[in-house]
Amino acid sequence: YVDEEATRILALQQGDADRIELGQRASLVQVAGAEGITVHEEPDWAGTCVSGGFFNFDIDTENNEDVGSGQLDGNGIPANFFSDADVRRAFAHLFDQQAFIDAVYQGAGTILTMGLPNSFPGYNPDVPVRTLDLEAAEGYFRSAWDGAVWENGFEFTALYNAGNTTRETFLNIIKDNLEFINPNFTMNVRSIPWPDFLARTAEQKVPLFALGWCADYADARNFVNTFYDNDGFYAARTSIQVDSMQELIDQADVIIDQETRAFLYRDIGTLHFDEAPMIVYPVQTEYILTRSN
Q1: Which residue ranges of the chain lie beneath pLDDT 70?
Q2: How far apart are the first and last CA of the chain?
Q3: What pLDDT is stored for residue 276 in this prediction?
Q4: For 204-230, how does the pLDDT look when each residue is reduced to its tens digit (9 = 90+)?
């Protein structure tokens, strides 16, 4: 994987690559119409990936620079900081969903209600979406940890993989709004190389990180269990523990019929709003960038 977007674009232009991914849709202007390059795009293409910000419910704070002091004392956060649902709800209200679509996807994107592509059975389109609401965010922060969050403040570092400008923008939107509502709140954002990023999140060292998942197979279980199951793939990085959600997942796991499971997954979508275990950011309208030959 080539981290630098400019290097990927150059490789396509010079014929060293047949297909590349861009960090942001805005970068299409650098290649659209260029000789030898074709942009394939259809508005009805269904997306099969979901990305967002993942909270770590039980951070390994030992020798961990990303949690500061490791205490809720204004200079860090404790291991269980994000286990309080009010903290997670507050953070979800720091992200502007539509502004992200306009800025990053040039208006060509779709807001998701839960951690599941909207083309998959079980997706719940009727669930509300937490988006930018500083008043709501402040209210949740004041309630979190019996008021200690708002009174003491905190500091931590969120991570993304180097070169992924979409994830960088996502985290910086949250950072800017967080630090605006309370000067005692600090969220640093830093990037590290992909192998280091995977290793550090797997060690449960990262308080909040931006990552995603693309379908391995065409079944909603591949997303629901991956993101929300306390024994799923992401659990090794997030230590997620939402009992009401786990109960529904366990019920769905023993049901073979996809349509029957879809009813349970819709309820999980409702709990996604209620419990805010992750922040799903919008998906862009799909396109493919290739050499013309």
Answers
A1: 1, 23-24
A2: 22
A3: 98
A4: 999 999 999 999 998 999 999 999 999
Edge-to-edge order in the sheet of strand 185-192: 185-192, 154-161, 208-214, 49-55, 278-281
* Dist. CA 13–CA 124, nearest whole Å: 41
- Neighbour-count burial of 254, counting CB atoms closer than 10 A to its CB (0-12 exposed, 13-18 middle, 19+ buried): exposed
> What are the φ and ψ backbone dihedral angles of 151, each rounded to 5 degrees?
-70, -45
Amino acid, single-letter form, for residue 280:
V
- Is 131 exposed, middle or buried (CB count within 10 Å of its CB: 0-12, 13-18, 19+)? middle
* Number of neighbouring beta carbons within 10 Å of residue 123: 20
List, in order, residues 6 or more apart from 108 with CB less than 8 Å away: 25, 101, 284, 285
- Could you tell me the two tokens for 283? 């998906």
Per-residue b or e along 48-58, where b marks 16 or more CB atoms closer than 10 Å to that residue's CB: bebbbbbbbbe
Separation CA 239–CA 86 (nearest Å) = 17
Helix (H) or strand (E) holding 191: strand 185-192
pTM for the complete prediction? 0.90
Q: Which two tokens stand for residue 85?
A: 């649902």
